[in-house]
Structure formats: C-alpha cells, structure tokens
C-alpha cells in the first residue's frame, strides 16, 4: 500500500500477466468442456407480471467445472467470445434447451424457451440452417423458441440481423432484443428491426422505486413498444415494489430473482409444480 509508483506498476504487470495466463487456462479447459458434458443449462422463469403465472423460461449456460464448481457465464463467456468457442457453446446450449423443452412437452408442460445468441453465431452463414436442424432433431416446435440478441449486436450489424431473422421468423421462431436501453438505438432504427420482444435491461428496473426518472423511462419504453406492437419483458425484478410499479404501468412480463432464480432442469420442474398456473 505504501509502495511507490514503480512497485505499483510492477504489481499491476504481475496481475495482468496472471490474467492472461488465466485466459489460456480457461480456453484450454473450455475446449475440454465442449468435448464432454460439463456445460449445462439453467432455466429462469419469465412470469406474467400481474398473476405471477409462468409464461416461459430463459436458458442460461452454466459450467460444471471439475475443480472450481458451478460457474456462471461471467467467468468464461468473454473467453468463449474471443476464441470463437462461443459458436460451439451456443450450439450446445440450443441443443440442450430444445431437448429439455421437448421433454417438458412430453410431460404436458408447454414452456416457451428463450436462448441467447452471440454475434459470432449470427455471423456464421450456417446459423439459420443449424437452428432449424436442431429444432427438427429435438422435435421442439419453432413457435416455442425465442432467440435473444442484444441491442448492441443488433444495431452494430442490422444486415446480418435481417438475413438471419428472415428464414427463422418464417419458421415461427421469435426474436427478442436483449438488454434494451443500453445501446442508444434511435426510434427510426428500432422500427425497422424485425423483433417481437424488448427485454428492458435490469439497470432500469433496479432503479424503479429509487428515482422518479427511471419510472418515466420504463413507461416510455412500454408506450413505444405498444405502438410498435412489441412484447415487453422487464429483467432483473428483485422487489415487490418494482413488481408493483411495473404492474401499475402495464408491463406484461417480468423476470428476476423475485419470481425465481435460474435453476437446473430438475429443480425448475419441481419448482413449476408448486407455482401458480
Ligand atoms: P442476460 O442475457 O442479460 O441474462 C440475464 C442475467 O441476469 C443472468 O445472468 C441472470 O441470472 C441474471 N439475473 C436474472 N434475474 C436477476 C435479478 O433479479 N437480479 C440480478 N442482479 N440478476 C438477475 P447469468 O446467468 O450470469 O448470465 C449473464 C450473461 O451471460 C447473460 O446476460 C448473457 O448475456 C450471457 N449468457 C448466458 N448464457 C448464455 C448463452 O448460452 N449464450 C450466450 N451467447 N450468452 C449467454
Ligand atoms: Ca438474455
Ligand atoms: Ca438481458
Ligand atoms: Ca445482460
């Protein structure tokens, strides 16, 4: 703490090279994980804001690391993106989610599933064909699948978005604009995007109840979505107060720890048995 500038810089360098090493380790281990079955999918419920009834679930990748335990995407998704492994990871998640969705259907549980898609996956010319193939192979109906693309990605390359959404929307797959509000999209651009749902970023939801401004922002997004005939999902709802505000301004769907955390498929199934529907 009391060391001079030079030593601070020294520690900084050690720290950085340590991180670089970590990345290489994560990459190698991730390659290994992709060959085996360490990657798994958790499901977080999306609920009707008013009734709390489950209307679907978001598939979120988890890594059952042999030494480090269960890892959330924050620990490895950047490395996956940088190394291109995200393509295989995303493909794995989609297959696992669709197979699980099919298995729930076989138990008379109709659970629409949302799956996150990265920019690298969209850039793959085979992407649309691969998705349709997975649906076909798993027997999960296209109209129960929604693909989530972040606003930043969608705005960075609208042409790719058009190319991908065309055939997939024709097949009945829905598209959601993820982390909405963080990408500074203009209304004119938004209007052109062939999406079905806005997911309002959790940063706005977590401000609800704390500042009057946040309420107006969410209200404005809702009004805009309504004119454009988009569905809206509020992400990261943690408190009853946030839920009450969302309900009062007419938000249809919500997701967050208040209703349910991401759960593995078995726990999600058990949780469904005890929830209002
Ligand atoms: P996201 O798509 O915005 O997903 C929502 C994240 O918010 C999840 O974090 C979820 O666990 C967390 N969350 C849900 N409710 C609450 C809440 O009430 N409060 C708070 N503070 N957080 C909440 P998670 O699972 O750690 O995933 C982080 C991000 O990693 C995701 O953000 C998504 O961008 C990415 N990701 C996850 N799975 C995949 C995947 O299969 N493919 C790709 N490409 N990205 C993924
Ligand atoms: Ca998402
Ligand atoms: Ca999000
Ligand atoms: Ca996010």
UniProtKB/TrEMBL annotation:
GO CC, one annotated term: membrane
GO biological process, one term: signal transduction
Covered range of the whole protein: 439 to 715 of 736
Protein name, per record: Diguanylate cyclase/phosphodiesterase
EAL domain sequence ranges: 23-276
Transmembrane helix listed as a keyword: yes
Keyword tags: Membrane, Transmembrane, Transmembrane helix
């Amino acid at each position: 703490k009391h060391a001079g500038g030079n030593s601070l810089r020294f520690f900084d360098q050690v720290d950085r090279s340590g991180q670089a090493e970590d990345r290489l380790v994560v990459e190698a281990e991730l390659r290994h994980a992709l060959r085996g079955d360490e990657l798994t999918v958790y499901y977080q419920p999306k609920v009707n804001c008013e009734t709390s009834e489950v209307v679907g679930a978001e598939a979120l990748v988890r890594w059952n690391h042999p030494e480090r335990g269960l890892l959330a995407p924050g620990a490895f998704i950047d490395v996956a993106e940088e190394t291109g492994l995200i393509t295989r990871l995303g493909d794995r998640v989609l297959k696992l989610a669709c197979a699980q969705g099919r298995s729930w259907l076989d138990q008379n549980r109709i659970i629409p599933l949302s799956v996150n898609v990265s920019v690298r996956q969209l850039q793959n010319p085979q992407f649309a064909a691969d998705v349709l193939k997975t649906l076909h192979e798993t027997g999960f109906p296209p109209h129960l699948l929604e693909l989530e693309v972040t606003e930043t990605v969608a705005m960075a390359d609208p042409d790719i978005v058009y190319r991908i959404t065309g055939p997939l929307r024709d097949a009945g797959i829905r598209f959601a604009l993820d982390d909405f509000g963080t990408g500074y999209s203009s209304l004119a651009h938004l209007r052109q995007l062939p999406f079905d749902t806005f997911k309002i970023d959790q940063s706005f939801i977590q401000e609800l109840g704390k500042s009057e401004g946040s309420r107006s922002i969410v209200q404005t997004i809702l009004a805009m979505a309504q004119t454009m005939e988009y569905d809206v999902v509020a992400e990261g709802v943690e408190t009853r107060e946030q839920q009450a505000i969302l309900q009062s301004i007419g938000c249809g769907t919500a997701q967050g720890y208040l209703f349910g955390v991401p759960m593995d498929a078995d726990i999600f199934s058990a949780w469904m048995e005890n929830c209002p529907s």
